[in-house]
Amino acid sequence: MAASKLNFNFLLLSFLASLLIPEISLCDHSRQPKRHVAMFIFGDSIFDAGNDNYINLSVSYRANYWPYGETFFHFPTGRFTNGRLIVDFIATNIVQPFVPPYLQPGINFTNGVNFASGGAGVFPKTDPKVISLGMQLSNFKNVANSMEEQLGDKEANKRLSQAVYATCVGGNDYSYFVHNYPNATQLEQDEFVKNLVGNLTDFVKELYNLGARKFAILNVGPRGCLPAIRQSKELRGDECEEGSLEMIKKHNSAASKAIKELESKLSGFKYSILDFYTILYDMIKHPKAYGFKESRYSCCGHGMYNAAHCGIEPYTLCKNPSEYLFFDGWHPTEHGYRILADLFWNGKPSIAAPYNLRQLFDLESTPSFYQKIMKFPMMNNFP
Ligand SMILES: *[C@@H]1O[C@H](CO)[C@@H](O)[C@H](O)[C@H]1NC(C)=O
Ligand SMILES: *[C@@H]1O[C@H](CO)[C@@H](O)[C@H](O)[C@H]1NC(C)=O
Ligand SMILES: *[C@@H]1O[C@H](CO)[C@@H](O)[C@H](O)[C@H]1NC(C)=O
Ligand SMILES: *[C@@H]1O[C@H](CO)[C@@H](O)[C@H](O)[C@H]1NC(C)=O
């Protein structure tokens, strides 16, 4: 028993090691890595560290009740998992405390700000109740303006150009589309993908124009294979809801291409894309290779795959969340996020491309030509 466990762990370690590249110094000794930089975070519930707590939303949008947060924080923070998120692990690697949510009162901007909002899409109509990507961008402008006021233009611009801009968005837009246009033609689907990628690319360009240089992007995950979707469609065995998967695959390849084109057009633009789709899909299909016992049932919830309404009676909670890939029907456990964060940080180019995050953080940031941040009135989109 003990021997087989040892053997299993050894196999697991060598499997994960095969996806990682060894930590070697990219720089010569005259150039120390400059990792203590700010991180600005955008997107949906994969990255939301509590913004939705401050919006008047129904309980199903929130994760600010037990047992969310049970494993690491021991209280619910608004993160949609039992502990830390991918962005929390990244923040730990760059010697920071966690990056605070924008709507939390009295936050200090020094280490960056998290603008992400559970349920958010690129398009505001995906969910008008939460903070869409465009509103997140205008909130960022508020922060950039405050930084200029507090630190002066030169220092603020330096920090903004050295910072890393992390984004994970798009999944909710595809849920919206598949739900509202179940009979869309191929042409209509392709049009939607094209517009979504165009709007996402505009968002990245606009951040660049405000001084951003380094981007860390998660592509869109395999939504049709999540326990919540499989449960709502009553899918059996290995089945996934294929409609959204096909669109998401097109999206991911078009988005990679568009971002790569930006790199060739915009001086100093650097990025890393984590192939979240491929890894999560592989984790779902081969849980044991990543050290999980269970990838079809969620740890917390009820129903066919225990995938609905985590934390709302009646629900069941698993004993050991680290044996599960999914905490609730939509979101990985902390253990799942830790593996994803490791792969983002250290992964091979087939997983995190063209750089992994460690390389991205260590790249010398080209000083951006100073661009005056457009003055926007200080506004709070949400009370
Ligand atoms: C919150 O939303 C509910 C339902 O939409 C509404 O009845 C309530 O008045 C709102 N509360 C505040 C403080 O806006
Ligand atoms: C924010 O934090 C930094 C470093 O952690 C500190 O130097 C600075 O004084 C803080 N700013 C405010 C307004 O508290
Ligand atoms: C889609 O097509 C099915 C059958 O072809 C039909 O029953 C359904 O009403 C259609 N849905 C919409 C939203 O048009
Ligand atoms: C953004 O999306 C809208 C549709 O919602 C579309 O009309 C517009 O062309 C898109 N922008 C780009 C740059 O693709």
UniProtKB/TrEMBL annotation:
What InterPro entries does UniProt report for this protein, alphabetically? GDSL (IPR001087), GLIP1-5/GLL25 (IPR044552), Lipase_GDSL_AS (IPR008265), SGNH_hydro_sf (IPR036514), SGNH_plant_lipase-like (IPR035669)
Keyword match ATP-binding = no
One of the GO BP terms on file: lipid metabolic process
Q: Which family does it belong to?
A: Belongs to the 'GDSL' lipolytic enzyme family.
User: Which PROSITE patterns does the UniProt entry name for this protein?
Assistant: LIPASE_GDSL_SER
**Top-level division of the source organism's lineage:** Eukaryota
Question: Which species is listed as the source?
Answer: Populus deltoides (Eastern poplar)
Instruction: Tell me which positions the record assigns to the signal sequence.
Output: 1-27
Q: Does the keyword Signal apply?
A: yes
Report what the protein is called.
Answer: Uncharacterized protein
* UniProt keywords, alphabetically: Signal
Which stretches are transmembrane? Answer: none
Any one Gene Ontology molecular-function term assigned to this protein's record: lipase activity
